[in-house]
Amino acid sequence: MPESHYARGVERLESFIAQFPEWRRLIPSDLNSYGGRFTAGWEFPGLCDDPAVHLRILVDAEFPFRSPRIAVFPPPAVLTRPNLEEQGILCLLVEGALTSTERIESVSMELLADARDLVNGWHSGASLERFEDEFQSYWNRWQRNTEKFISLCAIDGPSRWVCAFHERNFTIVADDEKTLKSWVSNYFTPNSKATLQSIPLIRVPRPLRPSEYPNSVSDLYALLRSDTDALSMLQNLVCVNRDKRKGLLLAFPGRRGHGFAGLMLPSAKKEIDYGFRKGHMSQHILLQRYGVYPVRGASVIRCDPSWVHGRDHNPDVTILGNKTVLLLGVGSLGSGVAELLAKMGIGKLVLVDPEALSTENTSRHTLGVRSMSRMKAAEQANILSKRFPHLQFESHCERWELCYKKDRSIFTSADLIISTIGSWSAESSLSALTYNSKEFPPVIFGWLEEQAAAAHAVAFFGEEGCLRCITDDMGRPRVPVTKWPGVGTQKMVPMCGGVFQPYGANELSYSQTLVADLVADILLGRVTSSAHQVWIGQKKLLERENGEWHPDWIVRHGSPENGGRMMIVPFKNDVSCPICGRPL
Ligand SMILES: [Zn+2]
């Protein structure tokens, strides 16, 4: 950081502060109490209603590129006031919006005004709701919060029993056993052995305030005393699992969204039976004796689809989470499409590809050199399942025709089939098979033109056309976007029939998005009939590689000019198509 900016900033700030009566510059021993975070600071009395409370303005070595912080002195204990961090530093609402390297005086003024309002609110009690609004920040600071939960549970719904798996470092919780086992198997290794425990998820009407955090099991009884169902779930948990550690999840609505808090209860010690033969103590006495046991808090990391795919604000999550997509061809185009579909939250992806990954694939494929020589479909499924353990992935490392012969239900049970195989032989037969068959879902074909200078995504529904309607008998588009006069664009490699198309990951990424976008439109019901969408690459790429816009495309759709855009091409089946054509 340029020192001159810091020095000038501090000088300006001190000139501004000089207008306040009785201000003083903090000395090194004052600053030391902040653990070396700040390099300069000033204190002023008399700004807040309570004359005993002084405000401090503190800057660090990044100032003025980082905003000053405001602290109160003397510092109250953490969790006794809202918006209060360690050493009395305030967490102000305006802080995030106030970073100006130039308006040092007005920014400082706004921060001080906000701090004064906050501190005055502490004394009037008006700011207690902030404890609820920012529950997570306070819960994570609670000194008894030493555990960690990972939750896959739906955020809504009533109090209920859910499934928990206690790992060494954390507890994973899900609404049902199948979801939990699938997540554990994806996240760790397939067939991980998971011993599950039923634990209560209890709804409480609002987030807890720090004064309500339960230190003991008795505190928890008291917290739930007005909810007899919840109390009975807790008592059941204690009695059934008396010799085990056990978890509990609290769920609550808040003004800023839903939240969870985890709690861990210890196993009962032998002494709890004192005076009784084992098994002869009444439940009432057990609960009473267990009441003195301490409770620990657990921070809850949400890994449920609603949170992962849109922080509870994506209305499409549920629909997409219930869909199965079959993707044929996990090459450079297909692997990118698979990744986008996983990010979208498609519930189940089935990947089919007969080939292994070569190192020269890796600059365009989502898999890297660490996956070389491994089967693309299996490896892609394996890696995506670790990245998105709440989704399901299945792989078949064989040609689609063999896969279909073995189990046609893989094709007929999917909600959508995508082919990014890029082979006319494989795709023409797929198109012929699925055309006009009520057995199959819609099929999308995605492919690239030379150099990835254009890309096509075409969806066929039932009897509304087939691939041959828009291609010639060799699978070439009847109306291509680009034309490549002179030498061919294919390059040779020293192997039997070895040719490849050079193109880069940048150009490729547009076509991956094109296909994934059409998938979303179909699964969400926005496209309900056969459709053809085209990515027209940038003209500079075309010119660099000596290509040009195809005259037939210009006649039909107009010149793409500089390109770089997506286009919806009106789709019409060809009545003279040798596969699907029929008289009108
Ligand atoms: Zn046709």
Automatic annotation (TrEMBL):
Q: Which residues form the THIF-type NAD/FAD binding fold domain?
A: 320-476
Which SUPFAM superfamilies does this entry report, sorted A to Z? Activating enzymes of the ubiquitin-like proteins
Q: Read off the Pfam families from this record.
A: Prok-E2_B, ThiF
InterPro entries cross-referenced by the UniProt entry: Prok-E2_B_dom, ThiF_NAD_FAD-bd, Ubiquitin-activating_enz
Gene3D superfamilies cross-referenced by the UniProt entry: NAD(P)-binding Rossmann-like Domain
Q: Which residues form a coiled coil?
A: none
* GO MF annotation terms: ubiquitin-like modifier activating enzyme activity
Q: Where is the Prokaryotic E2 family B domain?
A: 52-143
- Per its record, how is this protein called by name? Uncharacterized protein
What is the scientific name of the source organism?
Geoalkalibacter ferrihydriticus DSM 17813
